[in-house]
Amino acid sequence: MKSLKSRNGLLCLAGLVLALLIPQIIDNNFYIDVLTLVLFSAFLGQSWNILGGYAGQFSFGGVVFFGTGAYASSILFRSFGIDPWIGIFGAIAAGAAMGAFIGFISFRYGLKGSYFALITLAFAEFFRIIANSVEFTGGGVGIFIDYNPSLTQLQFDNPAGYYYLALLMTVISLLIAWWLERSRFGASLVAIRENEEAAEALGVNAFRCKMYAICIAGAMGGAAGTFYTQKFLYLDPPIAYGIGTSVEMLLVTIVGGLGTIFGPLVGAFVLHSINEVARHYLEAPGLSMIVYGLILIGIVGFLPNGLIGLFRRRQKKMAGGDDA
Amino acid sequence: MTKKPTKSTISRRSFVAGTTAGAAVLATTSIGFPRMARAEDTVKIGLIHPVTGFLAFPGAQLRYGSELAIADINAAGGVKSMGGAKLEALLGDSQTKPQIGAAEVEKMHEAGVHAFSGCYQSAVGIAASAAAAKYNIPFSIDVGVSDTLVTRGLENVFRMMDGYGRIAKDAATNLGLINKAAGSPAKTVVIVHEESLFGTGTAKLMGDYLPEQGLEVVEVIKHANPTRNFDNIALRIKSMNPDIVMPINYPGEYVLLARTLRQQRVDFAASYSVLGGGFNFKFVQEMTDLAENMIDVNHWYDPNSAFGQELRRRVEADGKFFTMEIYTAYNSIRLLHDAFERAATTAPEAVNAALASSTMDPLFMPYGPTRMVNGQNMGSRAVAIQAQNGDVQLISPTEFASAEAVFPRPKV
Amino acid sequence: MLDEFMLLGMMPAAVVNGLMFGAIYALVALGLTLIYGVLHIINFAHGALLMLAMYAAFYLFRHFGIDPYFAIVFVVPASFVLGYALYRWGIGKLAHGKDENILLVTLGLAIVIENAAIFFFTADQQTITLSYSYDTVDLGFVFLSLPKVISFFASLFICLLLWLLISKTDLGRAIRAVAKERQGARLVGIDVEHIFAATYGIGIACLGAAGCLLLPSFYVDPFTGNIFVLVAFTIVVLGGMGSIVGALVGGFIIGVTESVGGLILGESLGQIGISLIFILILVLRPTGLFGAKS
Question: Considering CB atoms only, which of B127, B154, B197 is closest to A140?
């Protein structure tokens, strides 16, 4: 078993080195850009995974943290002249605060399962309407970010810059998940997921653990918001709080593997690849997305434990364990 | 349109296995671009439009108009200064998302694109043209209302049509002219606008411009996208009893509002919309009664131009509606072609310079040659059009008019 | 600007308008609540299937001149069969009984249906005009459009039919038994998979009816269905997941909230009333107004 562990460590290291070298190896900005989107999705997915995968609290409104962070750093820059490389910490704080707010209201009243999922959806919609109606968010007109490539703006004049930023964020998110799997806190989250009453009977403070989890998820979502606005330079309420991003977050995570370190990354990679390949070969409007949807259904149907489940089975076999 | 063989034969199992085995790079790079290796005798134009997602209809119209222009230009000999090089469309789909639109720019850049045309949504246009700016590749905005598109100082971005800033001005001026010609019967306006950048921004400007024309804005009503029910808005309008109702919104809401106003027996001198999403030949032909005498201000073709009439006939013979997206897309491609013709090269700096000094005749549009100032064509102009007897007539300014304005409209 | 007195004067009209649309909302929510109550799944394909029903009504009208209200006779059975088949040979088989997988399968289904609609029907927005589209019923203080009035009563009637089906028939008894106690129902010889599929079918049949009733007062494009889904979720939660009466009452409450909220706060910010009710009911009474305590 020990050799297997060190082997996995080596694999991760090799993966990281490969990831760092990719902009040198691949002389194709399109692939770098798509890989950046993959990493961005994976990062957002990990934010969802901590709450949904490890703690078992599914949300349909994961975007609410993203949007809050995006507005936070954009407004900090626009109204107070604070550069985004500092503003991103403001976004992280705002995302975490939003997590604490929603978490307190939801968990305080004991919302679980689909009830929790729906209240997060309602909050995302609530804040979309608010963002649309108040002045300091720019209302429906939105916020334009000046195109001004420099490190302090977290803007780059080549795709590799964004790629490395996204890579850094994704590595941090993987480390958070890795730490979670090893820590007492992570074990408590999993215990809550499996059976909250039993976990509490064993002395786990479920409310506190879930609050921590949603704050971590919120902080990560907030950081993603800054990344997005600095790359795409425009923010309005449907972008900030639209359901599309919420769906993408849960999609990459569940397809990849719920409650696993690499699930969101694998899910994001595979789903983005399918989307790009299908789009490349099928240009008639709608056709590529039909194929995408069918493949999605197929993955769920044939790999009920996500793509990571495929690895797991193989690894267990290699380790001589039972294929449960 | 060049149809490529649809090679969807990558089986799920082999694809999934291949990628998850960690052969990440291999899997993606092996997809490759079959068109990349083509010879240099084509000029590649990247079309980025939302052909899937909730804007798929205007997206498809833009793609169609662009391809039509490319086919026409090629049939007429391509880029003559470059030895008759043909234009080639690279088809892109933004899926309504800025990040996908920007990724399409990178993809097409790798495929050797020489210019872009797109993107309908301002948010996508902003992200995509900034991505193209890294390579200085010319980017012609076919539709995109936000003026931020051309005020960012990007030297590769050009817009043939107006943004909402100048359209609002044109709308107010034309309304003033029409009203004066009829003896100024209208005094009051209620603006009904959608909640995003387009509606909010335009409505705000109209609030400034209309008083200059002697018209008072008595109420500004903002509505959500989508709005399911316009009954209340109709009631509000009825209670204000304005002379003019001014919708500034998207197609679905535009039609629902018009229907509800009719059901609620709201009486007014004119419905006068600005870039009314729903005002087009489809609306006028399918709901002739309802549409009758409604007025819109939009980029509209010159109904007196022979070329415009011929283009309309061809588009309609193809089973499509001759909407404004088709004119803007068609001229956006012509603008690029004209620049390539004069630059006689695909080098971005030369093409951008040619675009900046463009003096192209817009052929079938009711205004004179192109005049670029910081990437914005100051020569273009929006006109007032009106539904009359199941067709659309240009009513103002009078030098291009194909019919007289019916204003105020007769009582229903 | 409007003063408060005028607003007050419009209030009765706003309430009546809200009730009219609320009945259709209820019908959309009815399918959702039934599926949730029995199968405990959140059906992400709901909007897409509603859109499909609207297209069915649209093409029946365009090609055969069939009035959308009469089209119910064809669309409802077809929707039932489609729903039954989708669940029996699709969702049920592929989901392996996991909630998260059901979510993804219905999501995937929605993506496929919406894009198939773009591919086959194009994304062009479609509306229909009937000979009585602009006829109204004059209540003295408000004009009600005739199509909306017809839809209102038809919705009520369909709710009643569904209630009778669930409470008075053998199938209804079996559905209730499965909803309450899956294992027990299986033990007494009920074919649970068949009941699941039948429930899903009935839920989609409700959508079929809703699609026909909506078409005359709305438009259809490949994404129309989603416009009604968030509202339907709110109604399901408000009324209590699984409750038919709850869906109807919830539909009325949400319809009126939207209408009155729009009148007071404007039609943009006014939408916030729905989200607020959604949040408050989840926090204060998650079982909804008519839901059974879980």
Answer: B197
CA–CA distances in Å: residue B307 to residues A150, B311, B401, C100: 48, 6, 16, 57
Cis previous bond, A23, omega within 30: no
B partners (3+ CB pairs within 8 A) are A, C
> Do B361 and B142 meet the contact criterion of CB atoms below 8 Å apart?
no
Give percent of chain C with pLDDT exceeding 90: 67
Within an 8 Å CB–CB cutoff, is residue A189 touching chain B? no
* Interface confidence (ipTM) of the complex: 0.91
Give the residue with greater pLDDT, C2 vs A181.
A181
Out of A35-39, A319-323, B51-55, B109-113, least confident range? A319-323
pLDDT tens profile C69-82: 999 999 999 999 99
Q: What is the structure's pLDDT at A157?
A: 87
Task: Name chain C contacts of B260, Cβ cutoff 8 Å.
Answer: 145
Residue range B34-162+309-377 in CATH 3.40.50.2300 = yes
Interchain CB contact of B292 with C (< 8 Å): no
Summarize the confidence of residues C184-198 as an average pLDDT. Answer: 92
- Neighbour-count burial of B389, counting CB atoms closer than 10 A to its CB (0-12 exposed, 13-18 middle, 19+ buried): exposed
Residues of A in contact with C274 (CB under 8 A): 125
Identity of the amino acid at A65 = F
Say if residues A288 and C117 touch (Cβ distance below 8 Å).
no
Mean per-residue pLDDT over chain B, rounded? 88
Q: Does B262 sit within 8 Å of C259, measured CB to CB?
A: no
For C278, name the nearest residue in chain A, comparing CA atoms only. Answer: A122
Helix, strand, coil percentages in chain C from 3-state DSSP, rounded to 5? 75, 5, 20
Smallest Cα–Cα separation from B260: which of B290, B225, B234?
B234
Those residues with Cβ within 8 angstroms of residue B397's Cβ, 6 or more apart along the chain or in another chain: B174, B177, B366, B383
Q: Are A285 and C121 a contacting pair, CB within 8 Å? A: no
- Of A146 and C64, which is predicted with more confidence? C64
User: Quick one: pLDDT at residue C269?
Assistant: 85
DSSP-derived secondary structure for B179-213:
HHHTTS---EEEEEEESSHHHHHHHHHHHHHHHHT
Interacting residues of B393 by C-beta distance below 8 A, sequence separation 6+? B303, B385, B386, B387, B401, B402, B403
- Sequence-distant (6+) residues with CB within 8 A of B98 are A232, A234, A239, B121, B123, B124, B126, B127, B128
Say yes or no: B259 contacts chain C, CB-CB below 8 A. yes
The answer to whether the CB atoms of A289 and C269 lie below 8 A apart is no
pLDDT in tens, B3-35: 333 333 333 333 333 333 333 333 344 344 444
In whole angstroms, how far apart are CA C160 and each of B271, C17, C30, C197?
Answer: 42, 21, 11, 22
A157–B contact, CB cutoff 8 A: yes
Question: Distance (Å, rounded) from C-alpha B14 to C-alpha A263?
Answer: 20
Q: Can you give the pLDDT at residue C268?
A: 81
**Torsional class of B265: left (φ above 0), alpha (ψ -120 to 50), beta (otherwise):** left
- Residue A289: the pLDDT is 92
Count the neighbouring beta carbons within 10 Å of the beta carbon of residue C61: 21
Q: Which alpha helices (H) appear in B121-243, and where do they start and end?
A: 122-133, 164-181, 197-212, 231-240
Is B218 in a helix, a strand, or coil? strand
Distance from CA of B218 to the nearest CA of C (A): 6
Residue A294 distance to chain C (closest CA, Å):
7
Interface of B with A in 61-120 (CB under 8 A): 91, 93, 97-99, 102-103, 106-107, 109-110
Tokens 């109904």 sit at which residue? B303
Q: Is the pLDDT of residue C152 over 90?
A: yes
Residue ranges in chain A whose pLDDT is less than 70 = 1-4, 313-324
Give domain B165-298+382-400's CATH architecture: 3-Layer(aba) Sandwich (3.40)
Which among B6, B29, B110 has CB closest to A282? B6
